[in-house]
Amino acid sequence: MADFTPQYLLFTLILLGTFSANHGCNQIARKSLLSLPFTTSSPPLNWSSIDCCLWDGISCDLKGQVTHIWLPSKGLRGSISSVLGNVSRLSHLNLSNNSLSGPLPTRFFSSWNQLRVLDLSNNHLAGDISSLFSSNGWPASIQIVDISKNDFNGMIQSLFLRRAWNLTELNVSHNGFTGHIPSSLCINSPSVRLLDFSFNNHSGQIPTGLGRCSKLEVFRAGLNYYLSGQLPHDIYNATELTEISLPFSNLSGPINSDIVNLTKLTMLELYSNQFSGKLPLNIGKLSKLKRLLLQMNYLTGSLPQSLTNCTNLIELNLRFNLFCGYISTLNFSSLQQLTMLDLGGNEFTGKFPASLYSCKSLKAIRLAQNRLEGQIMPEVLQLKLLQYLSLGVNKLTDLTEAIKVLSGCKSLNIVILPLNFQHEAMPSDDSMVGSFGFENLRVLGLGGCQLTGTLPSWLSKLKKLEVLDLSFNRITGSIPGWLSTLPRLFYLDLSNNLISSEFPKELCDLPALVLKPTAPPVEQSYSKFPIFVSKNGTSYQYLTYLSSMPPAIYIGNNSLSGNVPIEIGHLLQLHVLDLSQNSFSGNIPCQISELTNLERLDLSANKFSGEIPASLTSLHFLSWLSVANNDLNGMIPSGTQLQSFDRSAYEGNPGLCGKPLPLECANIVSQNRDKEIQEEKHGHGNLGFHVSLVLGFITGFWGVCGALVFNKYWRVAYFQFLDNLKYSLLDLGHVWTGNELSKF
């Protein structure tokens, strides 16, 4: 054994040397990587080794050629340099989810003949994509291209893809591409499985030929507002499709009955287009559908009975169409997976479908803006997971029973029932909501019901309530101080009622409007359903989060009076304050200027007097203001954003002057001075009159009385005259009194 040891060691060293030579990284590639103008956030990349094949995110082949640069989500900043083209054997490049910016080098992809995967998504890269290719376009090796969520522009031409025979995924979404969607996709790349052109500026029609993509599973081209025309007929031949997503475009025409050939579809998103006609009668053949989103189109007719054969449906949204029919006849009980149902904004009639009570997975129901009648039945308590219920703008009755029933739904977060229960009494029985009733309620909307009575005390039990809308009713009485005991209430709308008394100081202590929230709100799945709010003729839609609603107090158009308390300055989180069309008086509290988050302030149509507080100029976020139709005077604070509002914000205050009003303050001063002069002149004339009167009185008194004092005969004759006169007046008075009494 000892005789072979030297030879064995020599062989080992040679083998290790050969192995090291074969596995050390290519020096050209190493220098190119080191010269990349990247910076990284903490922690930095570990690129300290001599062998770049051992670096973070770098892989090599057996010959030391760099084949993979895989650096997603590494906090990279800077630009992509042309030296990257020196890494000629690159097959995988992933720089996604970083902060890279700027244009890509010209003919960036030309030197990579073996590139299979390119992922530059979610950066800030920009420029015209047409300058990045040679005349041959993508290399034949390319399989996956994802350049989504950048700022690229230009046209995606068909020649870019003419050699992309092995392409399986193409994602160019969330950019600024224009022009037509390439028409030869499926000819050049018949194996493609995913095509995503959404969130761009593509125009024209969706090209024909998609039916040739025999392996196409996902087709997305939504949010291209200039896409028009009908769905190409041959798209129904792409029978491997599992997802079609084309929302927010300008597509039109009917949904062809051949769509039922796509039996593997799990998602069909065609919302916010101009599709018309009826749903295919046999749509139930799409039994694998999980999400059917057709809202905001012009679809008509009744819902086909076969729809309930789509037993895998999780979300069904047909909101804002022209559907009609007696909805109670539709049997929803087979939809046991259904969690979200939105049929709002149609013309359905009948009662709340009893079969929905069998859909135990339901979390959100919207049937608002239809023609439904009847009552909310106790069976709704079977929906243990129900969080969101919107039945507004129907013809429902018996609010008292509805509150009793719904208060037992322990998962309910949002209840929106406006424009129902017309002219009923506000439920006032405090015991109707128990200590655990509405225990998770965050939103209660009962506006426009013309409800009578006062604000019920059971509302004080809703300790998780954040939004309360009781506008456009006939509520009387005062604003109760116990509202300040609701720790999360940040949106209060009591406008357009008959509420009287004063602005309660307790309202200035609403915790959610005084203190900044310490933790972000926990949003639920129902937040996919938007909440609509109409104010001053404008509709607002709060789509994603309840927390996107502005902290607000609306108490306009009531009969409130008195001074606005100076404690109003406590509401530091307030964004909207509407006190309009009441009878508030006194000065505008300067403490309003402490509401530095205020965006909208309406004090119009009251009886405020005095000057506009100069401190209001500190409200830098104020975008809407009205103090019109009060009794304000003086100059509008100048040199501030208060001059940027329309003159209508100040009209109806004769004493106000300065921009934007046409009346200059110099004219007001001159008019006031003239008035003072006139008053002074009038005052001097009165003084002369009073002096003359006094002097005349003195002269007359001593001229007559003095003579009576010093002359005895004159004195006796004078008092005899007074006695005779007294009896004459008594007789006259008796006659006058008798005559006047006879008239009554």
From TrEMBL:
The region annotated as signal peptide is: 1-21
**Organism (species):** Carya illinoinensis
Q: Which family does it belong to?
A: Belongs to the RLP family.
Q: Is the keyword Zinc in the record?
A: no
Q: What is this protein called?
A: Leucine-rich repeat-containing N-terminal plant-type domain-containing protein
Keyword field:
Cell membrane, Glycoprotein, Leucine-rich repeat, Membrane, Receptor, Repeat, Signal, Transmembrane, Transmembrane helix
Pfam families the UniProt entry points to: LRR_1, LRR_8
PANTHER family referenced in this protein's UniProt entry, alphabetically: DI-GLUCOSE BINDING PROTEIN WITH LEUCINE-RICH REPEAT DOMAIN-CONTAINING PROTEIN, NON-SPECIFIC SERINE_THREONINE PROTEIN KINASE
Subcellular compartments: Cell membrane; Membrane
InterPro entries per the UniProt record, alphabetical: Leu-rich_rpt, Leu-rich_rpt_typical-subtyp
